[in-house]
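Hi everyone, sorry if this is the wrong subforum. Our group has a chain we'd like a structural model of before ordering constructs, and none of us has done structure prediction before. Sequence below.
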Amino acid sequence: MFPIGVQVYSVRDHAEKDFRATLAKIKEFGYDGVEFAGLYGIDAKTVKGWLDELGLVAVSAHVALDEMLADPDKCFSDYKTLGCRYIAVPYLDTDRRPGHERFEETLADIRKMAEKSKEYGIQMMYHNHDFEFVKIGDKYGYDIIFDSVPADLLKTEQDTCWVNVAGEDPAAYLVKYTGRAPVVHIKDFVMKNRNAKEGLYELIGIKPTERQADEGDFAFRPAGYGIQDFPSILEAAKKAGSEWLVVEQDRTCLGWDSLDCIKKAVDYLKTINK
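Answer:
Right subforum, don't worry. Here is the predicted structure as tokens:
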């Protein structure tokens, strides 16, 4: 049975208003831990106190690569204070992605930050979207990232939704990275038209393009309410030696509040997490 965490970004609308009350709700819903995406202006020691009071584990944190590079000691010191064992590069701007001009620089930057985080006892991970699944020669950019940085420095944080959107099997990709996949993002979706990928990132609030994706083509769902085969994914996570499941829902759906969505997700996961 896996412990289950949630990416606080999923309930950012509540966390922005009252971070502690939101953490308390997360605990009330039955989550074991949290993954951070910023601390909403609260200092790390205060947040650590809240976690201890509530009985929540600080699993990991998403921190932009450029933010790490700007002040790595401050970044890793804060998340060490929180007790995070992991920290993840969550997203890459277009020029840093596989196949673009700064990709080689990005690989070197990730390695540099992974070496630095290790000094603080924090393991670096890379959290994917679908844009890493572009072929460079005969390899996906995703695989090049993990081939380029040693396994002891960089682990996967596979986002199962985006692997599926890219046309690959999330369960198979977890098994492929056995021993290197400690944290798994649990995210569900519906997608009527796999060719209608333009504008998908507007649905997670990133960089508008000329055409926004139509939610009739693609929409996020709480885990268990979309098309993902989570029993197979959890079985694969066991084989891969994964340690945590982390629920993430980038955007609400069907008129449900963000807190409703993460509650539905954990309630579903409890029925299959055995």
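For your construct planning: The CA atoms of residues 222 and 256 lie 10 Å apart. Residues 4-187+227-272 form a domain with the TIM Barrel fold (CATH 3.20.20.150).
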